[in-house]
């Protein structure tokens, strides 16, 4: 009994933290066959689940932090083991004991930045709207059609600011009645929740919800599929429902309705990469492709794994802040796949994917062979 009792305590804790479904696993191993980790190194979700069933989880090791929550294995699991919820439960347990493996030690500093300034970079909250300088973007006011919520990366990161700026140019050109909340916004909280920090997620979410309600926000346009997922599927846990639309959907809508016109050719071959949280998690596959297809002279190709089978860039589940060995980045494979297809540009619609793919261009020595763009950057280049 002496050796069993502590394990039972762990089993109960995993259950209480949201990982009860581990008990349904019958060890078929289908999860391991689809997991992108096994294209770069050995990793077994099946083993992690098995250990959790018996209360044998090793919270000091990196393994519990590896899952990028890409959503591939939950779709294949015959027993609905809910691997993403299970991993969040294990991370809640580890972070509850303040145990972080070396690769995820940055999560502590990230949490401090989110707590203090509402963004993971610990940048001054007051500068959150600086990306919009000179673009004529108005502060959001009640009665406007749309709140544009760019995401922390698009607000602060020098590369991703270009995505927010391209989006504002598109909205201006199409005459959309929109505004931004700038320094009043927080991070949506999606990724910190996936690292197991539920209290911080709730704080960020509650503050955002209050701000949205105070300003009479009804419809939110987002650049990040992670903001999309959280606003649409997780904020309703707080008994609110905002209409949420992703920039790739909205751009397609503006083109379809004739509110935005394209007047230039784009004689390039591009490969479209489906972000996990736009495609697999939320079913938005065709709008970005159809928007690209509307551009004259463009050739849009498909990567080897696409639509529902798309390969994760490696940045989900909080991994955007983790240390990943250079040779173990999924996005390296994506860049190689695009180059093999003869693509000149790898186009996507997620700030995390852009970050990962830009980095992989350099890591794989392909900086001169391929460009990485968000779909809004392509559309802004060809619009009238
Ligand atoms: S696919 Fe599901 S049932 Fe099969 S090993 Fe993985 S978690 Fe267990
Ligand atoms: S959700 Fe994706 S990254 Fe996580 S274990 Fe499953 S296949 Fe691997």
Give the SSE layout.
Blueprint: H1 4-19, H2 30-34, H3 45-53, H4 63-66, H5 72-76, H6 83-96, H7 106-117, E1 146-149, H8 152-156, H9 158-173, E2 178-179, H10 190-194, H11 198-214, E3 219-222, H12 225-234, E4 243-246, H13 247-256, E5 269-272, H14 286-293, E6 299-302, H15 330-340, E7 345-348, H16 351-363, E8 371-374, H17 375-382
Parallel strand pairs: 1-2, 1-3, 3-4, 5-6, 5-7, 7-8
Helix pairs in contact: 1-6, 9-17, 13-14, 15-16
Report the helical percentage. Answer: 40-55%
**Morphology:** globular
Question: Can you count the beta strands?
Answer: 8
**Weakly predicted, low-confidence segments:** none
Q: Under CATH, the topology of the largest domain is which?
A: Rossmann fold
Structural class: alpha/beta
Strand order of the largest sheet: 2-1-3-4
Strand percentage: 5-15%
Mean pLDDT: 97
- Which small molecules are bound? iron/sulfur cluster
Task: Describe the largest sheet.
Answer: 4 strands, parallel
Using the CA coordinates, give the radius of gyration.
21 Å
Oligomer: single chain
Q: Helical region count?
A: 17
Give the C-level CATH assignment of the largest domain. Alpha Beta
